[in-house]
Design a protein that fits this description.
Radius of gyration: 20 Å
Structural class: alpha+beta
CATH topology: Immunoglobulin-like
Number of strands: 10
Shape: globular
Order of helices and strands: HHEEEEEHEEEEE
Helix content: 10-25%
CATH class: Mainly Beta
Strand order of the largest sheet: 1-7-4-2-3
Number of domains: 1
Strand content: 25-35%
CATH superfamily: Cupredoxins -  blue copper proteins
Length: 190
């Protein structure tokens, strides 16, 4: 009788898992890791499209580059809607954060590579898709003046899919001189 009960419970459990869509089983969740919605970052916080003061088009490419139009010229306090289009054949991510936040997110993505984002500071964009992410560039604290736009899909950041901006003393964000890919050489955008 005991073996029949264990078999029945195992069968029910396996049936329930089998009925769960594969995308839910494989997508992963990071609610226990951290939550971005409403989350303030060292480089700002999520905002609504209606609050935006600027729009910037961003194209993701399978050459592991972002193409910005216009090139970001962002001041502290600007609220920017990024309109991200994936012109590639593979999914890409657009994430806003500082060096520490991006490193943490990259580690999480390595642990759960199938994760899909629709968070305050990160979105996943499938091939041919266009999505929006609106960000308020506020809340910069002492020593946290660098913003990194990154794709943390495993291997993409390491291949150069990121763009660094630094807030200078006048509050204008500019690319750092001789921007480097963390000791990977000089970085150039298409």
């Amino acid at each position: 009788m005991k073996n029949k009960t264990i078999f029945t419970l195992t069968f029910i459990s396996m049936t329930m898992v089998g009925m769960t869509p594969l995308s839910v089983q494989a997508s992963g969740s990071h609610d226990n890791e951290h939550q971005h919605d409403g989350h303030e970052s060292a480089v700002g916080k999520p905002a609504t499209v209606s609050q935006a003061t600027k729009k910037i088009q961003v194209v993701t490419k399978d050459s592991m580059r972002y193409v910005f139009s216009p090139e970001p010229d962002i001041k502290t306090g600007d609220i920017v809607t990024f309109i991200i289009t994936n012109e590639g054949q593979i999914p890409h991510e657009f994430s806003i954060g500082d060096k520490s936040e991006q490193a943490s997110h990259r580690k999480m993505m390595q642990d759960m590579p199938a994760m899909v984002h629709e968070d305050g500071n990160t979105i996943t964009v499938k091939p041919g898709e266009t999505k929006r992410l609106t960000w308020n560039f506020s809340g910069f604290t002492q020593g946290s003046n660098e913003v990194i736009f990154a794709c943390n899909v495993p291997g993409h950041f390491e291949a150069g899919m990121f763009h660094k901006m630094t807030v200078n003393q006048q509050g204008v964000m500019t690319p750092p001189e001789n921007a480097k890919h963390d000791d990977q050489g000089t970085h150039h955008h298409e």
